[in-house]
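Hey, resending since the last one bounced:
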Amino acid sequence: MAQKTTLNPYITFPGNCREAMEFYKTVLNGELEIMPFEGSPMEVPDDYKQKIMHSSLKFGDALLMASDNQPGQEVNFGDGIFLSIAASSLEEAQNIFNSLSSGGHVIMPFEDTFWGSKFGMFTDKFGIGWMVGFDKEQQG
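The structure tokens again:
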């Protein structure tokens, strides 16, 4: 069976990857795998050994990957990129929006839209942009 093409977001954090991915794991009820720099063949300063070289969070059919920046690398988050979640229920969408936006900045409250969905946008407490939606036609 041929593997299907997928697109998986990969976020580079400025040293707080573990905290962010643990938060996302809790909110999204996912399975998190974390690989620190320690134990890898990469040579990093001692204070960097517990930083994250790679992590992956599986939830639903989604995969979110992330790491900490490389030593000496700067991280700049862009305003033009958002991670979009299409929830499987209105309750799930509301819970994800409320939890992920806590401590962040709401750009558009989670509410009815003119295109027939519930939808909201925010940046979370880590500076990552999110969009959360639920297509009301899915309601039974």
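The helical segments are 17-28, 90-101.

Sorry for the duplicate.
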